[in-house]
Design goal:
Chain B: This is Transketolase, N-terminal section. Chain B: Keywords: Transferase. The complex is a heterodimer of chains A (312) and B (219). Chain A is an alpha/beta fold. Chain A is built from 13 helices and twelve strands. Chain A has a seven-stranded mixed beta sheet, with helices on both faces. Chain A has a five-stranded mixed beta sheet with strand order 7-9-8-11-12, sandwiched between helices. Chain A starts with a helix and ends with a helix. Chain B has 219 residues and is α/β, with parallel strands linked by helices. Helix content of chain B is 34%, strand content 13%. Chain B has a five-stranded parallel beta sheet, sandwiched between helices. The chains are: A alpha/beta (312), B alpha/beta (219). Chains A and B meet through helix 4 and helix 6 of A and helix 5 and helix 6 of B.
Chain lengths: 312, 219
Amino acid sequence: MTTQTHQTTQTQRATGMREAFVHTLADALDRDDRVALVLAAISADRFTDQLRRHPNRVVDVGIREQAMIGVAAGLALTGHRTVVHSYAPFLVERPYEQIKLDLGHQGVGAILVSIGASHDDPATGRTHQAPADVTLLDALPGWTIHVPGHGDEVAPLLTAALATDDRVYLRLSTRQNTTPMPAAPGFTPLRHGGLGVVIAVGPVLDQVLAATEGLDVTVLYTNTIRPFDRTGLRAAVDSSAPAVVVVEPYLRDTSAAEVATTLRDLPHRQLNLGTRRDSELRAYGTPEQHDAVHGLDAAGIAVSVRDFLRVG
Amino acid sequence: MNTYAELPALYDRLIGDEKHHLAATSTLDVLWVLYDRVLRVDPAHPDAPDRDRFLLSKGHGPMAYYAILAAKGFFEKSTLDNWLDFGSILGYHPDRTLVPGVEIGSGSLGHGLPIALGQAIGLSGPRVFVLLGDGELDEGSNHEAIAVAGRRGQANLTAVVVDNASATHGWPGGIAARFAVEGWVTATADGRDHDALERALTTDHPDAPLAVVAEIREN
């Protein structure tokens, strides 16, 4: 397989999300004949039993990502609850027009499940990284976007998504927090403080908690960034201060418009942290080294937040 | 009523008095044969689960398609009179969520065949037909689906390619050969000959998908 190198690397660093996805979906495929899965070679070795047992709803189209989305749409049009899975760039960026038209414009749903995230494995370089995936899907109407922060958050998010017909993106990562959080629809308050509100999305929670240790700020967590919980943010701001920091493990500013819309009647300040937009990071190395360049490690977040809140 | 002879008058309601354009429409005859002789669809129940699916992948120039759907009773003929207006269900590119009997929204080329393949995989019993143009075959997405459908032996899938030699760089060796090499059964017919089209569209293909090339060679 062309994916051997990636899969070996993934396995060495695997800490649970992909395994939780495979386990939960395999079980759903065996129990519910409405559930379907379309693959494009990636992870086909994880579903060999289901490919053999359910050939009319578990399909590996080979390395053909346009057909992957089109076939998924066709299955959805015939009443199936369809999951599509690949590396983030091949799942979201390469067949983007198929996602827009074959799913959105046809008025059907599917669950897109990605691996690779922003820079899970920097040794693979830019070709296997998709920090803009959430931003791109957010440009299309009707997508629910989950960014789990722990392997234990995957099963409840996937199970809930399977029970709907919505368009859902589930962004898996090999990075995860030490403690799983509930799969709640909006923001979960973890700390309360008076200087402002810091939002941690998915697998940046550990860094955010470390960076804000001892700071008088409210910390919110979510693994569902779309729909954006405007009510939850507004309540948090009303009981803190109109200063909002969003820390997202993907393209910086992705949720800036949501924050601005939430607080449009209120003079406020906001700071958005995420992967950099201004240049392509041409470097290999480790995810932690990339975090540092993007300012997403605990030290970088701490400097940015303290500067933004004007505390020493 | 509901005859081929009725189509020019319906077409006029879309276009005005340029009847010669209908005769020049490359998809007219194969669409008529599909709806009149081949497809198991019921205009009174356009969403019946056991219906055959017809996907117009080549969504450009849908006037003949709309005229036939109106002739067959999928919507009121008066619907044709204000097409393209704000609020009309009929546009230059069909929208499945607006038009009864339309299975996919199309217009951007190369989307229909992969979707049709997914429907064929997902359906047990009904057949799936998809109409493409020879120029549309330029889109690589078609070739992804041709390979997968052929290798799966997707016998409930039929691709109809209306070939009016419009592909920018042509298809040396013929369009049918592109499908045959991937394991499809193929049939070629004069795209104006209703009986020949019917024979081609009903070609036996118990273990493989069928590709019908409808050749249009006049100007």
